[in-house]
Amino acid sequence: MVREICKDPAVLQKISAPATYLDLPAAMDLRDTLSAHSEECVGMAANMIGVLKRIIVVSIGRSSLLMFNPEVLQTRDPFEMDEGCLSIDGIRRVTRYREIEVSYQDIMMKKRRETFHHITAQAILHEIDHLNGILI
Q: Of 66, 67, 60, 59, whose CA–CA distance to 41 is shortest?
């Protein structure tokens, strides 16, 4: 189900709780909502649809990757860039990394560890900021 994008700073600035398999319906809604906004964004965090759980989804090519409880393990090659967000107005300058290593649980709650690059790395970092209550 496509959900409305949350723009309430009181919700967006809260730290999200760990996700479990019981949060799978919210994850599916998050993926549907990202798909509905594919022209304007490449990733979403669950708090962007009002769900304070550690779930993100990012577009990778024509598919999407759901991540439960993602944590950044390592970053490489920092750079400055301007970012926007569906949840807040305007563009802000941020530091991102061209390569990151992330641990997370997949849709089957299996632990994974992967390295991501460029736009995918940037999107994952942006969405993990959301989970930590950080607005760009």
A: 59
The full set of domains in the chain, from first to last, is 9-131 (3.90.45.10)
- Residue-wise pLDDT tens digits, 57-75: 999 988 999 999 999 999 9
Measure the CA dihedral 62/135/130/12, to 10°: -120
| β-bridge partners, 73 | none
- pTM score over 0.90: yes
* Active-site residue identified among 4, 83, 99, 127: 127
Residue 38 has, within 13 A of its CA and on its CB side, a CA count of 10
Residue 127 catalytic?
Answer: yes
Encoded tokens for 53:
């759980």
Distance of CA 102 to the CA centre of its chain: 12
